[in-house]
Design brief:
With 375 residues, the protein is α/β, with parallel strands linked by helices. 34% of the residues lie in helices and 18% in strands. The protein has one domain (2-14, 59-354, 368-374). The longest helix has 22 residues, at 112-133.
Length: 375
């Protein structure tokens, strides 16, 4: 087993331009302010602050050559900054996707409570960071009433610390008599009685942002109805739902139809997206098996990027595109930069890839009502 170090021969993605500070009209720097008889104070330069904002905007649009957040605090700040930029551009159907825990284990394989609690904390952190960038009245929407009640008990202090936040659940969506009957049975079995926190975070003011977390494939239809009834004119974020995994269940027996993607999920623009993948490839010479990892990355309004994981844990850009990479395309880009790609059109390439190199939701462009999820 071995891994390749490719830092020396990675193609360099477009770097981030630097914004120079424009000269003063007189050609000279303004003298520092002095106060007679008082302690000298320093004031932030308005021009420097404006230049910093312009530089950050240019950085977002041009993408990153290397991405290695130092902490989850940085990761959350980057997600909030991209979310703010998308909302400012008038986009209202948005997706945020990144690993909720510092582990390669999928939330479908690990402890569900750990991922549920991590996503709640991260969603609250994103709302807190977003409020520093723009005025927002957010509502966190849980899959059902028991999840909402549990979060209100565990994260009461964190929710109280954020001004203007409210919580809700998909159970607020009006349903038919059959669903109402099963919900009543579930409430009885779960002993889902109202507690003292039930109505604490309700607000009469207009909600501007709805964030849906910890939902399953079965919940996607309820999310669509919730958005139609309560959030038609508000911004909506699907937060760490692993939509690629949920899409794979659509159309199966007992799950919503594939049309749900074409009609609803295709409207959501990924504004901050990190989807990691681990691969291995057999070769004819030592070390015979090459292990490598990469990610599909997007930080709005920057381009879609394919990133190769380096030995130090950072992700280096190896390819960029204005449209979303399919998982097959992303893997091909990683193989290309590693020098492991088979000859185009060869029988070995066909045997390794098969006749399909994309999923059904990546292929059927003509059936989509929107291409926002690809841009």
């Amino acid at each position: 087993m071995a891994s390749l170090s490719t830092a020396a021969r990675l193609p360099r993605c477009p770097g981030t331009p630097r914004c120079a500070l424009p000269p003063s009209p007189t050609g000279r720097a303004a003298p520092p302010l002095r106060f007679r008889g008082r302690r000298r104070r320093s004031f932030p330069s308005v021009r420097a602050e404006a230049a910093k904002e312009v530089e950050e905007a240019v950085e977002l649009k041009s993408g990153v050559s290397v991405y290695k957040p130092r902490s989850y605090e940085v990761l959350v700040a980057d997600a909030a900054r991209s979310l703010a930029a998308a909302i400012a551009d008038g986009r209202t159907r948005l997706e945020i996707e990144f690993p909720p825990l510092p582990s390669s284990i999928s939330s479908y394989k690990g402890s569900s409570d750990e991922f549920i609690d991590a996503n709640v904390q991260l969603a609250l952190a994103v709302v807190r960071s977003l409020k520093k960038l723009r005025e927002t009245r957010a509502c966190i929407v849980f899959p059902d009433q028991p999840e909402k009640r549990r979060a209100s008990e565990i994260f009461k202090t964190a929710i109280d610390s954020i001004e203007g936040i409210s919580i809700s659940s998909l159970d607020d969506v009006p349903t038919g008599p059959v669903d109402t009957f099963f919900r009543s049975i579930r409430k009885t079995l779960d002993f889902d009685f109202n507690d003292e926190n039930e109505d604490q975070w309700k607000s009469d003011e207009q909600t501007s942002l709805y964030i849906f977390i910890n939902s399953s494939t079965q919940d996607l239809s309820s999310i669509e109805k919730y958005v139609e009834i309560f959030a038609a004119s508000a911004s909506v974020v699907l937060f760490n739902l692993e939509l690629d995994t949920l899409r794979s269940d659509l159309g199966l027996l007992g799950f919503p139809p594939k049309d749900l993607h074409y009609r609803f999920l295709s409207q959501f623009t990924p504004v901050f997206y990190i989807r990691q993948r681990d691969y291995s490839k057999t070769i004819a010479v030592t070390p015979y098996i090459v292990n490598y990892s990469g990610a599909v990355f997007r930080q709005y309004p920057g381009p879609w990027q394919v990133m190769l994981k380096q030995a130090d844990g950072s992700y280096a850009c190896v390819a960029e595109s204005a449209s979303r990479f399919t998982l097959g395309q992303a893997k091909d880009e990683l193989l290309r930069v590693l020098g492991l790609q088979e000859e185009e059109g060869s029988s070995l390439q066909f045997l390794r890839q098969g006749y399909k190199n994309a999923t059904w939701w990546e292929e059927n462009v003509d059936q989509e009502e929107s291409t926002a999820w690809r841009t």
